Amino acid sequence: MSEMLKDPMILRQLIMDHYEFPRNHGLVDDTTYSQKHMASESCIDDIVVQVKIIDDKIIDIRFDGVACTISTASTSMMTELLIDKTRLEAKKIIEAYFMMIDNQRYDEAILNEAIAFSNVYKQPNRIKCATIGWKAIKELIEEGEVNE
Amino acid sequence: MSEMLKDPMILRQLIMDHYEFPRNHGLVDDTTYSQKHMASESCIDDIVVQVKIIDDKIIDIRFDGVACTISTASTSMMTELLIDKTRLEAKKIIEAYFMMIDNQRYDEAILNEAIAFSNVYKQPNRIKCATIGWKAIKELIEEGEVNE
Amino acid sequence: MLDVTKIRKDFPILNKDDGLIYLDSAATSLKPKKVIDAVLAYYQDYTANIHRGDYRLSLMASELYDKARENVADFVNVSATEIIFTSGSTASLNQVAYQFGLDILQAGDVILTTETEHASSILPWYQVAKKINAKIEYVPLNNEGLITIENFTKAMHDQVKIVVTTHVSNVLGHVNPIKELARITHDHDGYIVVDGAQAIPHMLIDLKDLDVDFYAFSGHKMLAPTGVGVLYGKRCWLDKMLPLFYGGGSNARFDKQGNITLKNTPEKFEAGTPSIEGVLGLSAAIDYLRDIGMDNVLMHEEELSKYLLTKLHELNNVIIYNPSVKSGIIALNVKNIFSQDVAAYLDHHHIAVRSGNHCAKILNNVIQVTDTIRCSLYIYNTKEDIDEFIRVLKDVTLEKCIDLII
Amino acid sequence: MLDVTKIRKDFPILNKDDGLIYLDSAATSLKPKKVIDAVLAYYQDYTANIHRGDYRLSLMASELYDKARENVADFVNVSATEIIFTSGSTASLNQVAYQFGLDILQAGDVILTTETEHASSILPWYQVAKKINAKIEYVPLNNEGLITIENFTKAMHDQVKIVVTTHVSNVLGHVNPIKELARITHDHDGYIVVDGAQAIPHMLIDLKDLDVDFYAFSGHKMLAPTGVGVLYGKRCWLDKMLPLFYGGGSNARFDKQGNITLKNTPEKFEAGTPSIEGVLGLSAAIDYLRDIGMDNVLMHEEELSKYLLTKLHELNNVIIYNPSVKSGIIALNVKNIFSQDVAAYLDHHHIAVRSGNHCAKILNNVIQVTDTIRCSLYIYNTKEDIDEFIRVLKDVTLEKCIDLII
Ligand SMILES: Cc1ncc(COP(=O)(O)O)c(C=O)c1O
Ligand SMILES: Cc1ncc(COP(=O)(O)O)c(C=O)c1O
Questions:
Q1: Higher pLDDT, C172 or D51
Q2: Are residues C283 and C320 in the same domain?
Q3: Are D195 and D325 contained in the same domain?
């Protein structure tokens, strides 16, 4: 897999696929989920992320909103990566993702497909797009901890 | 007199005299007077001018306020010049005064002592001082006409 | 005719070799040397606070400031006492809503507006309506987002006290028939408040002729600095209005008991130190535009706009939302690619456009789309700019957009 | 120590051969090249509106704008989310009065303030008091116009909800003991709003340490452009406060029914296009001051101030109204000559000072004089400036003042 993910053609297809068929898309009307509305400063991306955590474990993540290819695909990948993880595992993955976006050393292995965004740092105007969903889940997890 | 008024010493003394002993100074509490409050934009000069006009004739002018040498002296001279004049005469004198301040040709004869300010145009920062009382009386006379 | 080659030389940012194609003048315009020099002169030759004559620098700054007001007044054909300098259109429009609207509106009165309004034009009135229990109504727009006189006349009734409308929409670029709207409004004893932010930079505006009650615009969209704007109001309303801000420079005196004697209009509205170099820059911008001639500005933009529309029509991957527009604001999308992805792709080719909802967030009710690419033109744009824009647009695919980041 | 010769080279206006002696920095400061260059860079290198990332220029401008906020926050030791950019101190202070004061005050509550306040600090509270039927009370000042902790403690009582005070008086230059005033205010469950316009340019201010609720200042008095200022507020109050202006950039969304979702603090307070180059210039000014070191700035001014006072004491035609002052603001008059006449005479000798009541119009109750000459010093002033000022002051007579105009 890791080798395949070096191939730009594959990466492109991955992103397209997550954009056209976003996973875990559509919100649920369920108060056991906490939710976060992210409207990026550029006033264009406007998404909502929901998460359900039980006993330290992420049971489900959902998202919806108006967003570009990069935000949609990166958020979609995020949901796939984090569902079924413990808080601690999720936080490690999130940290790795932000390290990658920041062009620092990071643990490739745990990011899986999300390394499709490893070169976003070269396009500063897309960094907000590639992180909006990830920021939402990060804040949701952190807030959840504080509330307990 | 006109010759004497060319002597700077005399002019200086005239201005000092009008500053130290302003004529027609102090307001009256009399509703037959109309009055105008002038606070120049520099927020420093702050004077009130009153005028009583009967049958087209300026019966009396009074003034008071916080003001510099130039405003006080020029307003004091104005009162002396305009009291007992008809509106039309007063307007001619006022017009001549503003022509002088603007460094244009004007009728020296009717300005009398007020030609002490004939060189103010060389000190642009004092023009407001030299005209504040004159502006007040000008507006009072004009407003009076409109009201009739 | 307007000599674009010569004009482009006046804009330092266009004379670097990075090939910038700036198609976002509706967001903010580029600045010509004349404006930059006016700002510099304030910093280098007469830095001083205004409305003081204690020394030469302050007198110079004050006189230039006062002349700038006359220059602005002259540009829009009103009296200098009717021109208030503000920090921008947003400040101007908020001030009218709170200091005039709140005062004259009563519960049940109607504020008539449109769905093309910019947030800065309509949001203050939402606040006013809420406070006073007034109602907001919308003039139905035609399917291109235009206010027609017919629709406006129908929407008008005797409960309408205030009409709030943009002169030129910042999303769809349509020019509303303000003179007629003002006449109809006044026939119903209403007041009309016009957001001129996108109009003033592009055409000669005669406010006396338009006969509006209030009119707002910003310096930065008309070649001038940011942080400065204008509120025009009819003298009779301004004289009755109280200022929003109180402070130094706007009062003649005050005492311990809280008695305040305000100065006259317009000084009473300008408390505190204004954007002095902003005002001087705005005046220089007006001189610059006047030298070119506003008729030439308009003609140039209409010509470019027509050229751009023709070229766009030839592309089959593009949707145009305002095909009948005459001004230099064109709203479009590339089929099946989100506007922001297209904007990023254009940026990669040095083309600056804006994507999004452009702060007119209720317009999606009308054009049935939340986000568009906005291309907006000004005096320094050329047919070559458009050719390059078209070339890149023609080529764009979702794959190419994604390739930029992988 | 501060190298004045080197500093003076940074100010283009001081390097012309007109022999300008600028002693009016309390009105507005001169601008160093570093600030001018920051403004120029915006015009020449990245002219774009902010909070957009559609293309490189806009991203660059947005990032610099956000960094400027962090720079300002860092300078006064608070968090960037507590820094709101405004158009100046006047706008900052009015905003607190209407959006915070009006909200928390009730009829009968007391606003405690002083007679040294600038119009921009006190007039908004007169409006608030009138609207809400609150009472204004004044801390008795000592005969030099100082707030003492003793007097403040006595004036304080449980009806006092808000304390409004200047940090440094713009007429008398005294530095009020803000940290203690804040403590006493908070002990009485009150809020303290501080006008820092004359403090920030001259000394290191640690707002966290001072523990005030709100603090306002202007860019133009601290080497930056006009048209930009700051409102600091504790995050908890800002989060509760509503903005004064509504418009583009401060809302996340709104709909036809008038529902508005505001962005978070501080964005929610910054509707419309701000003074972008003003903010960038302010950040550059802070960098410049930080390079010099605020301790050095303070030391230099205190030294000059002491020197000036010593020299003034040697003149017998001068009355000093604040002989114990330590800051660089000195209030004086020449005996028997009206302040404006003296100022004009000084101007004739290229010396710029200000005459008048300096917008603190109730102070005459305290110092028993309506008008003074104000001489105010800053980093670029020298002992030579003072020597020349003293030489001219010594010579001035009413006759000489009059001779200038005849
Ligand atoms: C003490 C004080 N407060 C407030 C202000 C008002 O500042 P600005 O005019 O920049 O709004 C000033 C400036 O004159 C001042 O000296
Ligand atoms: C139509 C319209 N109105 C108002 C504004 C607000 O102008 P400013 O941001 O200069 O206050 C804009 C600018 O975006 C606009 O396009």
A1: C172
A2: no
A3: no
Same domain, C42 and C148: yes
CATH at C248:
3.40.640.10
Return the axis-axis angle of helices C276-292 and C294-314, rounded to nearest 10°.
80
D248 C-beta closer than 6 A to ligand 2: yes
Q: Could you give the CA distance from residue D53 to residue A40 in angstroms, rounded to a whole number? A: 10
Pick from C268, C290, C312: which residue ends a domain?
Answer: C290
- Distance, CA C144 to ligand 1 centroid (Å)? 49
Q: Distance between CA atoms of D231 and D196, rounded to whole angstroms?
A: 10
Question: Which amino acid is located at C291 in the chain?
Answer: D
Residue C330: CB atoms within 10 Å: 26
What predicted TM-score, i.e. pTM, was given to this entire model?
A: 0.95
Phi and psi at D298, nearest 5°, equal -60, -45
Contact at CB, D51 and A124, closer than 8 angstroms: no
Residue nearest to atom 16 of ligand 2 (CA): C170
Q: What's the full length of chain A, in residues? A: 148
The rounded Å distance from CA D197 to ligand 1 centre is 5
CB contact under 8 A, A39 and D252: yes
Res. C164: pLDDT tops 60: yes
- Do D300 and D267 sit in the same domain of this protein? no
Q: Which residue has tokens 């005002």?
A: C279
* pLDDT at site C363: 67
Alpha helices per DSSP H over D198-293: 207-210, 235-240, 276-292
Residues D145 and D281 in one domain: yes
CATH number at residue C399: 3.90.1150.10
Ligand having the closest approach to the CA of C168: 2
More confident residue, D251 or C244: C244
Spatial distance between the Cα atoms of D128 and D105, rounded to a whole number of angstroms: 9
Sequence-ordered list of residues with C-beta below 8 angstroms from that of A54, at least 6 positions apart, any chain:
none
Across the beta sheet with A57-66, what order do the strands follow? A34-39, A46-54, A57-66
Among C119, C249, C256, the residue with its CB nearest the CB of D248 is C119
Q: Which domain holds residue C22?
A: 4-29+293-405
CA nearest to A127 within chain C: C405
Q: How many CA atoms lie within 13 A of D348 on its CB side?
A: 19
**Tens-digit pLDDT profile for residues C24-34:** 999 999 999 99
Instruction: State the pLDDT at residue C218.
Output: 98
Q: Is B138 on the interface with C (CB under 8 A)?
A: no
Which CATH number is associated with domain B4-146? 3.90.1010.10
Q: Kindly indicate the confidence band of residue B97, based on its pLDDT and cuts at 50, 70 and 90.
A: very high
Residues D93, D113 within the same domain: yes
Q: Note whether D149 and D130 are same-domain residues.
A: yes
Q: What is the pLDDT along chain A (148 residues), one digit of tens a residue?
A: 567 777 889 999 999 999 999 999 999 999 999 999 887 655 567 899 999 999 899 999 999 988 899 999 999 999 999 999 999 999 999 999 999 999 999 998 999 999 999 999 988 889 989 999 999 999 999 987 766 5
C89 lines ligand 2 (CB under 6 A): yes
C362 has a pLDDT exceeding 90: no
Residue B83 has pLDDT above 60, yes or no: yes
- The verdict on D364 touching B (C-beta cutoff 8 Å) is no
Catalytic residues of C: 359
Q: Residue B148 pLDDT > 70, yes or no?
A: no
User: If you measure from the C-alpha of residue C162 to the centroid of ligand 2, how many angstroms do you get, rounded to a whole number?
Assistant: 20
- Closest ligand 2 atom, residue C358 Cα: 14
Identify the H or E element spanning C214: strand C214-218
The answer to whether D376 and D28 are in contact (CB under 8 A) is no
Domain end residue (candidates: D268, D290, D312): D290
Question: Under the phi-then-psi rule, with left for phi > 0, alpha for psi from -120 to 50, and beta for the rest, what region is D375?
Answer: beta
Q: CA A148, CA C244: separation in Å to the nearest integer?
A: 46
Q: Which residues of chain D have pLDDT under 50?
A: none
Q: What is the mean pLDDT of residues B19-30?
A: 95
Number of domains comprising chain D: 2
